[in-house]
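JOB MANIFEST
job_type = single_chain_structure
chain_count = 1
residues = 156
[input]
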Amino acid sequence: MTHVLMVGDDDDLRCVIRMVLEDAGHTMLEAPDGTRAVDLLRTAARPLVVLLDLALPRAGDGAILRAIQAEPALARHCYVAVTALAPSRFKPQVRTLMAAVCAEVVAKPFDIDDLLAAVQRADQQLAAQSDRLVGQGVQLDRALGAGFPPASTSHG
């Protein structure tokens, strides 16, 4: 089950997306603005797929993208930009941030199937990221264990 955070100021759009994604079996969180979104991202118990409306009030010129990029711990989430603007219409620094932070862009108006597919791809990226971290943990365990004798279970 994918956990999705929808970030956007349009209450109606958030409601529709929540209903569609919940019907598809996803667990939904919502944030009406960037401040609330960053708070949820910081405190989330697990990595989230984040549907991020880039046209948030008071977050112009990529402010939320800069906030996300500034905190390496927030990289554990997978971001999908949802925007009515073509990426070419954004300022170059915002396009650079989008490329660094977002896995993909879903253009408004969007087809529900396209949105569901984007969420699925983002969830697959989170799963692959988790698998890489588990693999790194196993390698670390082996490396640490190689330098120490096996623990004795006898108390002799």
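[summary]
The longest helix spans residues 112-146.
The beta strands are 3-7, 27-31, 49-53, 78-83, 102-107.
exit_status = 0
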